[in-house]
Design goal:
By secondary structure, the chain is an all-alpha fold. The chain has four helices and no strands. The longest helix has 14 residues. This is Transposase.
Amino acid sequence: MSRKRVYSSSEKLRAIKDYVSGEKGVTQICTEMTINIATFYEWLRKYNASGESSLIVSKNIKYYPNSVKFNAVYK
């Protein structure tokens, strides 16, 4: 099983702008990017609700040591 591809904010924004401008259709965008149509519509929904900032990819992956997890559950 392959790893899930993470698209950059600029890639998502380019896809949304291509669709909104009428330059490309949903099927064409999804085929070119090899994404599911539902994924594209999720990006579009977020963009319409909150603008470009909603498409920013967070690189801050939180890591918590086991001791912190243990204390959160048992204290």
